[in-house]
Amino acid sequence: MTPPHAAGVSSSRRSGRGTGHRTGGDTGRPQRRRCGQRSAVRRPVCLQIVYTYSMASEKTTTVRIRRPDSERLQALAQRRHTSVIEVVHNAIDALERQDFVRSLASDYERLHSDPERWEEYVHERREWDSLA
């Protein structure tokens, strides 16, 4: 028996599940559903972030998101005169910075809760400030 990948057909495509295909009528052959059509289950079809051709050479992946979020990303990109992927990159960077600042604030709170260590910190900071 030929494995599915050797025959050029994935196992999910052969079963008609998971790839936007459905079994058609009496033939048992998968039929391609057009982008935007919905299946019997109310879930969005074909929601993908499209990468530019220049990104094709890099290691990329497809991210599936809800339609309202996709529309929000597109609106942000239009307002900023940039691409959707650039908005996604900027959002990731902003979240990482936000996590860093929250972690830093938590560390300061913990340090401030220990009076002895806080006094050591303040003393050391004053020493450094005097050198500046």
What can you tell me about this protein's structure?
The protein is mainly alpha-helical. It has a domain at 1-37. 52% of the residues lie in helices and 6% in strands. The chain has five helices and two strands. It has helices at 4-7, 11-15, 67-80, 84-112, 115-131, and strands spanning 21-24, 29-32. Helix 3 (67-80) packs across helix 4. The radius of gyration is 26 Å and the shape is elongated. The termini are far apart. The model is unreliable at 1-24 (pLDDT under 50).
How would the global form be characterised? elongated
Q: Helical content, roughly?
A: 40-55%
Number of helices: 5
Largest sheet: 2 strands, antiparallel
Q: H/E order of the elements?
A: HHEEHHH
Q: C-alpha Rg, in Å?
A: 26 Å
Strand order of the largest sheet: 1-2
The average pLDDT is 74
Category from helices, strands and their pairing: mainly alpha
- C-alpha termini separation: 76 Å
User: What would you call the quaternary organization?
Assistant: single chain
